[in-house]
From TrEMBL:
This is DUF3791 domain-containing protein. InterPro entries: DUF3791. It comes from Butyrivibrio hungatei.
Length: 69
């Protein structure tokens, strides 16, 4: 299952970078600082039944609420 989680994290990071026009290093720093990597892992059971767009919107909502983006 770890491979599926990593694959999802990579996809969501890429989509996040495209949406917010930032490089992967900057996005990774944000994901690390605001514990988005852990969030994806903890919510994987829910995330894997939703589409990437829904999941990205959820992540964006969290980061906006925290003032990260």
């Amino acid at each position: 299952m770890i491979n599926e989680i990593i694959f999802m994290e990579i996809r969501l990071l890429g989509e996040f970078c495209r949406k917010y026009k930032m490089n992967r290093a900057t996005a990774n720093d944000i994901f690390s600082k605001y514990e988005i990597w852990q969030y994806i892992e903890e919510c994987y059971d829910m995330f894997h039944i939703n589409g990437d767009e829904y999941n990205l919107n959820d992540i964006s909502r969290i980061l906006k609420r925290k003032g990260a983006i």
